[in-house]
Amino acid sequence: MLGRIRSLAVSQEKIVLLIAVVLFVGFSVFLKGFLSSGNLVTLVRGVAILGILGVGMAIVVIGRGIDLTIVAIYAMSAAWTLQLASLGVSIPAALALGFLLALAAGVINGVLIAYLEIPALFCTLGMASLVYGFVHYALVPLQVVYLPASLNAISWIGGGFVFGAPTPILFFALISFLGFVFLRFTKPGRFIYAIGDNVLAARISGAPVRPIIVLQYGLSASIAYLAGMITATAVSSMNTNVTNSSLVADVILVVVLGGVGLSGGRGGVRNVIVGTLLIGILLNGMTIMNIEYTLQNVIRSLILLAAIVIDSIVNPRDEQTAQQGDI
Questions:
Q1: What is the pTM of this model?
Q2: Percent of the chain scoring above 70 in pLDDT
């Protein structure tokens, strides 16, 4: 009997997907205009950036880390790219320098966490303030940096269409696919799961733990830079104040909501996609209903809590299963 009950147990990912389907059907029936092609494109496009950042965060979280610097890198590296272009720097040079700024911040995070063993929470929190403060003081004195005319040649990155599909959606799909392949089929990806599952066992088995941790944060920063350039070219500007917004909490919410465990070694890109779909459908529907922003946050938080509680009930973990990564 117990075995049969366990066979019926569903994962958090499936629970969240079911909630997303129910919400989609409900909004389709009761909200006028929800099923219109324009609104559906807006829905998917609106969460593409959140999903891309979620993939970067998931790579870190699966390895039992956290990256609170991801939004600062997303905003400030893209803002510096726009600033350089406005000062007459060529497009390739501006893109390269912006990317190197993002990568440097990510690598520094990884080195401090891996080699100095600073807790990831405090390291990335401090680095987020450092990135924002340094770039704002020394490189980008403006709060809002606008896309200069010299970058119109790459405006298609965030504002273009391919066969009717907005390019941010396609980039989300591409990053999701590459992230899936990396985590599932490459040796570094398997090492990330091993480290998240049990870092001591991974080290004993010969996994290069410290270099892999640096790689995690480097990849997260690189993905953040791409997301920043997609945003900058989509809205023709970058507001550096987004660093101090709740966006980083939204990114963590998407990752955890979909089923990527904060304890590491569990989940994948598919979980990020599911979490992003739920948040996208929920926020789009509540926006159509003109629900107050504060109440939207309350509802979103309750759904997150419900998904975690239900998952803990239908999938109880004993001491042995807690040590196993869900690859």
A1: 0.88
A2: 89
